[in-house]
Amino acid sequence: MNGKMRKEEKIRRTGLLLAALLIAAGLCACGSAAAEPDLLDTVLERGTLIIGTEGTYSPNSYHDESGALVGFDVEVAEGIAQHLGVEAQFMEAEWDSLFAAMDSGRVDIVVNEVEYSEDRAEKYDFSQPYTYVHGALMVASDNEDISGFEDLAGKRAAQNLTSSWGKMAESYGAELVSVDSVSQCVELLLSGRVDATLNAETAFSNYLSVNPDAAVKIVAETDSTTSSLVPVPKGNERFLAAVNEALDEMRESGRLSEISEKYFGIDVTQEN
């Protein structure tokens, strides 16, 4: 990063921090007993945004051949940090541990294709959507028994047990077999240890672009889309507003679309 960019980020961060302090002072002047602490203040004062992500989920969050952490969600998170004028610091963990890390304060946000759910909404506020993606059902090429989601009843599906895709497969009556990556799903499909796997269309399209000869096929897609959002610990309204401002900025500049095309080959950042 050159000196000019560092200076601009420092000015941006200082401005955000000053705005946060002025808002807090205004609240006190209006008779508030004490301004509520907000995660935005902590992030700006620290100078880093700590982001939870898996690091094993291509093309959203994974390591390239050089070992660098890359992916669609990684670049979205970096864009949020850049808007705030702070450095992006990633903490990698398995999916089940990401929210526990946010609950304990070890990470500020989780950026890892997180979808809204009523259970999560009890503990977190959510940003605006930044993707709109169809779900897809994959089976082995020689599988003629499964042609739609309803055919999952009584079948074995390779899924992350706590993901929304796993819950969807379970809702159709599938027996879940635990996996951590799309490549694991395909391995189990090809070995016959599972019958199907359900995931985002983007995850499958990315896998097939790298492995075009894989003996698998997509047999169904959901009519509706699901969206990725950034969860924020409840009670941090200014931090949530700053995250939304960052997403607005990336969408208006075309950066979100560019990142989507880079990793997915299609633009999934616009609502159909």
Automatic annotation (TrEMBL):
The alphabetical list of record keywords is: Signal
- Region forming the signal peptide: 1-35
* Domain Solute-binding protein family 3/N-terminal: from-to ranges: 48-267
Note the InterPro entries from the entry: SBP_3_CS, Solute-binding_3/MltF_N
Give the CC-aspect GO terms: cell envelope
Which family does the UniProt entry place this protein in? Belongs to the bacterial solute-binding protein 3 family.
Q: What is this protein called?
A: Transporter substrate-binding domain-containing protein
Q: Say which species the protein is native to.
A: Candidatus Eisenbergiella pullistercoris
